[in-house]
Structure formats: structure tokens, C-alpha cells
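User: Need the bound-state model for manganese (II) ion:
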Amino acid sequence: MNNITPINGQFALAPLPYSELGNIISSTTLELHHGKHLKTYIDNLNKMLPGSGLENLPLAEVVKKSPGGLFNNAGQVLNHTMYFEQFGNGNHNPEGKIKQAIDRDFGSFEAFRKEFEQKGATLFGSGWVWLSADNNGKLSITQEPNAGNPITSGLTPLLTFDVWEHAYYIDYQNRRTEYLAALWQIVDWQVVENRLIQTATMH
Ligand code: MN
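Assistant: Bound-state model below.
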């Protein structure tokens, strides 16, 4: 995630790591969300980077250093890249280090899941709910409006659910809570654990 780097100053749309996600996120939503929404954020970012002084930096550094419109597009590219990357047919239950950290900091996976869904459901308007680790590996859940990413608060983002309406409206209409509850069936916890392990080796 921290290693997404531009080639000749331009970011590219990475293909989805899967072709479908069953009935949890429809192929129509995937095509629009990845192929149109994320593509547009990448195109806008690539147009805004030249002359910004942030050319050729890794994406995470652009997000941390960019102002205004550039931040909105860079943030949305990072957020969506992490979102799409964390789904798949891998392990749908946390194990190992990520399970230990969740049990330690939230009491249980059920308690964590309840708080995560509740914070996603109550985020007003468009934004993202995040699980992050601080420099000591302690986990927390935060709400970020619009293009927000906890990386700007010095945290390491591990897992995120997109609660912009474009993420769920075709499949769930206004039922955001159903969408949030369904996503656990497609989370690949190995991806989330790898993000936590990478954090630990950085500090
Ligand atoms: Mn989105």
C-alpha cells in the first residue's frame, strides 16, 4: 500500500484482484466503482500532479503532503486501492497477529465488528470507516469524511469500508447497514494482517 509509486509521474489503474464478489458487491457496481469512479480519481490526480512539487512521490506521501483538490483525488486513489485490494476469496476470519490485536484492543471480534459497523452507519454523508494501528500497534476505529485517510493523523490504515453512496446504492439502495454487515463475507483477513505486519516492521 505504501509502495504505490508513479511511473513517469503518472499513476495507473491497477486491475481488480478478482473478477467477481458473488452477490455481496455486484459486477455492475464493481465495474462502475472501479472502472469509472476510481479511474476518474486517478485521471484527475495525474492531471494535478505536474507542477505540484509532489511528482514521483509514493502515493501515501502525496496524500500526507497534498492540499485541497490534489488531496481529495490522491486520498480517493489510496482509499479505493486499499478497499478493492482487501476483498477476495482468502480467509474471511481474522487469524494470527491481527486476531490477537483485535481481541486485545476490542475484547472480541464480535465487539470490533459491532463498533466498526456502527461507526460506518453513523458517518454523516460521504466518507470511510477505518481500522488503523498506531506506532505501538494499538488498534482503533475512526470515521473519515470525504477522501479522509487516518494516515494523515500518523496512523497506519489496515481495513476500510467505503460508505459513499456510489459504493452500495445499486445493490443495497439506501440500506447502508445491510451493505456494511455483508462486507465481512468478502474481507480477506490475510491482506489486513499483512498491512499490520508491515507496520510492525516499519517501527
Ligand atoms: Mn468509492
